[in-house]
């Protein structure tokens, strides 16, 4: 597919009520290719009137034919949508590559997961059920529960996985019979708009899936809107805190998947042939722009030097380049602001005494100057109190440490305000189980990293958020439980 033709028009409007509509104010913002700086599109910048319009349309759709649609019909629509996503995946992948800078070789791989998520949630649509519950009140009294859609959902999405997040946020909405106002990140709005068009083509009624494009203030307005029943947010911890505050006055349901500073722990008995490339991929995939990236690498002292030598050598071979080149493994970071933020962390780390073992600079020359490319960077001589050991950098930067004992590394791994992901590398079953029980994080990957499946929950502990995505736990987040009492006497 030609990169020059995948974006249908330079002017991209919102999709509300089944129609493309401009912002009421007429304002637009630019989205650019982070690999080249090239203007991709001018996108409608939604404001207060547009937020109100989108929420009103979603509320009206909630009480329309959608509310009377049988679960099997919703399921059929979702299965059709999964087929359409597969059929149009090359286009969706190209949009994300152009908008985000992720290598096309990576975005193309998302097809199986995206279609799998939609088919999983389609299956869940026919499994939603209440319970008949015993009670101890006098007389012949029947008690049971009903499961009902929570209502209008606002999804506020991050920029690091645009089409994947659109699918992940929409799946439980469609399965449960809710309606959605989705606000994609301003850096990467294009694939969300195309996905919403596919929803319409699949038979999703007008107004059920709406895409409101805009800047951060649009997300803030959605969070505080009195007619929104639930917020589903993925992004930084700081923004998540603001969303929770904005939602509090109306007591709307909130689920947040936030930042991370995930430990990746390698024991001396690990299979190094697997652990070395996995440790690199855990932090450098998507240019480090993954919330559960394994950015804190703990290696047992007896193998530390050997492991680091092998890791540095492996990481040197990682190809940074044009995202459209099929051989590229790492593309640019999403924006100049993000690049400058990451480089400031790198500079600060050296000032605190960390020793760069690899990288540590912007990649320049040979066609890189127009884009936002950063070399894969590995720091040694890092202490647990350094800024790069504590703060989420969200870039291709790894901090490496050595450790001696299980008790020591458990304490250090947990000495963080975050708790999203973690990795453990060992051949010892007892060590694996002890670590899995001891690490305070929502996911523990043993002898692997970043495994995800539609049926398995994902989410965080502590400042990494609350609520779960994927699995039946995810669907439950979009339902209200109503108790019904019937006196049969």
From TrEMBL:
The lineage of its organism: Bacteria, Pseudomonadati, Pseudomonadota, Alphaproteobacteria, Sphingomonadales. Residues 24-484 form the Aldehyde dehydrogenase domain. It comes from Aurantiacibacter xanthus. It comes from the Bacteria. SUPFAM superfamilies: ALDH-like. InterPro entries: Ald_DH/histidinol_DH, Ald_DH_C, Ald_DH_CS_CYS, Ald_DH_CS_GLU, Ald_DH_N, Aldehyde_DH_dom. Pfam families: Aldedh (PF00171). One of its GO terms (molecular function) is oxidoreductase activity, acting on the aldehyde or oxo group of donors, NAD or NADP as acceptor. The active site is at 257. Keywords: Oxidoreductase. Gene3D superfamilies: Aldehyde Dehydrogenase, Chain A, domain 1, Aldehyde Dehydrogenase, Chain A, domain 2. This is Aldehyde dehydrogenase family protein. Belongs to the aldehyde dehydrogenase family.
């Amino acid at each position: 597919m030609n990169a020059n033709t995948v974006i249908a028009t330079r002017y991209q409007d919102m999709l509300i009520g089944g129609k493309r509509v401009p912002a009421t104010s007429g304002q637009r913002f630019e989205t650019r290719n982070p690999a080249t700086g090239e203007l991709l599109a001018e996108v409608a910048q939604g404001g207060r009137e547009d937020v109100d319009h989108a929420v009103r349309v979603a509320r009206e759709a909630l009480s329309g034919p959608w509310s009377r649609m049988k679960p099997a019909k919703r399921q059929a629509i979702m299965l059709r949508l999964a087929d359409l996503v597969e059929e149009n995946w090359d286009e969706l992948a190209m949009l994300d590559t152009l908008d985000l800078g992720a290598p096309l070789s990576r975005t193309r791989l998302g097809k199986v997961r995206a279609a799998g998520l939609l088919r999983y949630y389609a299956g869940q649509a026919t499994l939603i059920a209440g319970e008949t519950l015993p009670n101890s009140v006098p007389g012949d009294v029947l008690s049971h529960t009903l499961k009902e859609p929570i209502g209008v959902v606002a999804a506020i999405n991050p920029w690091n996985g645009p089409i994947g997040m659109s699918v992940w946020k929409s799946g439980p909405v469609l399965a449960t019979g809710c309606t959605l106002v989705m606000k994609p990140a301003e850096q990467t709005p294009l694939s969300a708009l195309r996905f919403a068009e596919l929803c319409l083509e699949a038979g999703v009624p007008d107004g059920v899936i709406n895409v409101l494009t805009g800047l951060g203030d649009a997300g803030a307005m959605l969070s505080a809107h009195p007619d929104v029943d639930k917020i589903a947010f993925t992004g930084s911890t700081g923004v998540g805190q603001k969303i929770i505050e904005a939602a509090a006055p109306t007591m709307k349901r909130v689920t947040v998947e936030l930042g991370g500073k995930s430990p990746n722990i390698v024991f001396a008995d690990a299979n190094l042939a697997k652990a070395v490339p996995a440790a690199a991929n855990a932090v450098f995939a998507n240019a480090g722009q993954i919330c559960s990236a394994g950015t804190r690498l703990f290696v047992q002292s007896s193998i530390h030097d050997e492991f680091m030598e092998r890791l540095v050598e492996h990481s040197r071979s990682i190809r940074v380049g044009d995202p459209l080149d099929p051989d590229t493994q790492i593309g640019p970071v999403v924006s100049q602001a993000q690049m400058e933020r990451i480089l400031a962390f790198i500079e600060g780390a050296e000032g605190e005494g960390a020793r760069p073992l690899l990288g540590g600079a912007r990649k320049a020359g040979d066609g890189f100057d127009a884009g936002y490319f950063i070399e894969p960077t590995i720091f040694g001589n890092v202490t647990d109190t350094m800024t790069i050991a504590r703060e989420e950098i969200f870039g291709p930067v790894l901090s490496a440490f050595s450790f001696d004992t299980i008790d020591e590394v458990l304490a250090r791994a947990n000495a963080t305000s975050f708790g999203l992901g973690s990795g453990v590398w060992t051949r010892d079953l007892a060590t694996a189980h002890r670590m899995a029980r001891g690490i305070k994080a929502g996911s523990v990957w043993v002898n692997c990293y970043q495994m995800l499946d539609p049926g398995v929950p994902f989410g965080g502990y502590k400042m990494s958020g609350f609520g779960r995505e994927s699995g039946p736990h995810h669907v439950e987040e979009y339902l209200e439980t109503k108790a019904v009492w019937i006196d049969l006497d």
